[in-house]
Amino acid sequence: MGAHLDGTPMAVGSVGIFSGNVFGYNDIGLALMPSVRHNQFSGNSFVENQEQVAIQGGGAMAANEWHVNGRGNYWSDYAGFDADGDGRGDIPYRAERLFETLLENNPELRLFVYSPSANAVDFAAKAFPIVRPQAKLIDDFPLMQPIVPTGTPILPAPPQSNAVWVLAFLLITSAVLMSWPWLKPIAQKAGGGGPNPFGVKSKSKR
Question: Looking at per-residue confidence, does 22 or 13 come out higher?
Fold first, then answer.
């Protein structure tokens, strides 16, 4: 879990501001209790979390803003587009996965988070809007690129195994040899009547 918020902000009449954070590569990126209200989330990056934002303890997530002054957050699972090139998605980001909704009411289903059944449930919700859940949150101005704070360490790229290059070489070599013109007559069965590339004469016994 990237972060867990409960009772924020504590002072009555105040507003909590969360900006410039990266919630990445977690089972749950950001978990909120129903008491979390009057907060503003903008300029944050939610990167490859199994569940970007979760509501825990029952209830609904209300009275929080997911964009400020036309600036929202980055969501790695956003499937929209940026036609005008202003760096913001042209359609809102909606967190409305059916399997996530089922998890909130049945925590024991988390056992199936990484199974094909989770994707099957979400696919069914997209195919049949009648079972599509209500969106947990809506970001009207999702960012198209993540915002990485200065000084954040960059993970090195995993070294590539030599076996990958060997396999690629073998595949390319096989494709070239199979397409070579003079190999096609050799592949013919004996007595097929094809030309002999080596000029060797043969005759069959009777």
Answer: 22
Asked if residue 157 belongs to a domain, the reply is no
- The tens digit of pLDDT for each residue in 90-106 reads 999 998 877 776 777 77
Question: Of how many residues is the chain composed?
Answer: 206
| Domain of residue 49, residue span | 3-96+134-139
Query: Does 145 reside within a domain?
Result: no
Sheet of 74-75, strands arranged across: 22-24, 45-47, 74-75
Q: Does some domain include residue 43?
A: yes
pTM: 0.67
Q: pLDDT band for 156, please (50, 70, 90 cuts).
A: low
Distance, in Å, from the CA atom of 118 to the CA atom of 100, rounded to the nearest integer, reads 9
Question: Would residue 122 count as lying in a domain?
Answer: no
